């Protein structure tokens, strides 16, 4: 007689699940930056070959837009004022700031690195806002990388010491006067804070700075002193306004604090961005700071050209190779191709080209503008030819330095040669009318025809590394 009973084996203890730190949800950037430019687009419906009603829908939509064409511009144009001190256009309206940043990444915050986020950072600092801003995320990641490098250095040092001990070559370096052992390990911020929690609190007489030194070790194993003020700061972090204790002490509530915060940040547009919005798209009106008079497009062109020199150049000395004209031709060229163009002074270049924007990925290309004088006018005399060659020449040292910087940040260097046309007949007529101010008559000049005389040649340069670029 057999038994069907089977003995159950003791199950292995379940592994303890490690709780991962909760990461805050990121904003939906695809929805926020759905429009690449601050204009409205009304495309036709898609054509479906196997559905004959799609043809009828396309025809009706086309006829409706032909009879009553919708406006691609906003109902009220964005307004800004130009300041000669900063040589930029300032936008103060909060709706216009968000619209220009979210629809094309134009400008930068006056109190931020890039995106205007001073108000969000201020709310978070006072315990009102819970989500992190882009600058706070960047600072947190930098701190995490810094702590990771410290921990990696500590483990490498510990591995070397264990290997020396195993080989019998490790000799303790204890001096007779109480020196520090060479095998002291690196103390991170969290370890130092953990040890400070076990220290006794000082008496009131010892609470003055410098009277309660604490001994620790730095990365080289040397003794360092941490005074009581620093130790107490590490041991007792500052409370936030969002805690129940601070609210109970009579401090204002988060909702009350949020109502009292006034946004002190505005948007700064470079002259190239402002002229592209005013001339290329027609969605921006630029006015003088005092008095508040709107500047026409022709007068705005002359104003930006004059302010591209330092010191300010008179109208009679403006040239076709003005810094503003060369920069705007390149800016308008890449904006027309769909790139998001941002200033590149951080990486020693003129522009950075993003595929979709800084919120989605890093810049792919770094642009350097080089003027080119190939027209016979610039080679007509020996003096003019020498001056033109001096303006467009670059040294090999400069090229290697710039290319090395871009290769370290994983960007491709793009040299953009702008062929400068000869002086134009209507060049000074714009400046004569610009001197009359915004109320003067506009010059009869075709800005589009003037910009078409410039030619652009692109040259991509990449650093050749033998172990990566060999066949």
Number of strands: 12
Roughly how many Å apart are the termini?
A: 76 Å
Provide the succession of SSEs: HHEEHEHHHEEHHHEHEHHEEEHHEHHEH
**Major β-sheet annotation:** 5 strands, mixed
How confident is the prediction overall: mean pLDDT? 78
Structural class: alpha+beta
Please count the helical segments: 17
Order of neighbouring strands in the sheet with most strands = 3-6-2-1-7
Q: Compute the CA-based radius of gyration.
A: 32 Å
The residue ranges in which pLDDT falls below 50 over 5 or more consecutive positions are: 172-189, 202-249, 428-442
C-alpha geometry:
globular
Content of β-strand: 5-15%
Please tell me about this protein's structure.
There is one protein chain. The protein is α+β, with helices and mostly antiparallel strands and 471 residues long. Helix content is 38%, strand content 13%. It is built from 17 helices and twelve strands. β4 and β5 (223-226) form a beta hairpin. The longest helix has 34 residues, at 134-167. The radius of gyration is 32 Å and the shape is globular. It starts with 28 loop residues before the first helix and ends with a helix.
SSE layout:
Blueprint: H1 29-32, H2 52-67, E1 78-83, E2 88-91, H3 94-102, E3 108-109, H4 118-125, H5 134-167, H6 189-196, E4 214-217, E5 223-226, H7 228-235, H8 244-248, H9 254-260, E6 267-269, H10 271-281, E7 284-288, H11 297-307, H12 323-336, E8 340-343, E9 351-354, E10 365-372, H13 382-392, H14 396-408, E11 412-419, H15 427-434, H16 447-452, E12 455-461, H17 466-469
Parallel strand pairs: 1-7, 10-11
Antiparallel strand pairs: 1-2, 2-6, 3-6, 4-5, 8-9, 9-10, 11-12
Helix pairs in contact: 6-7, 10-11, 10-12, 11-15
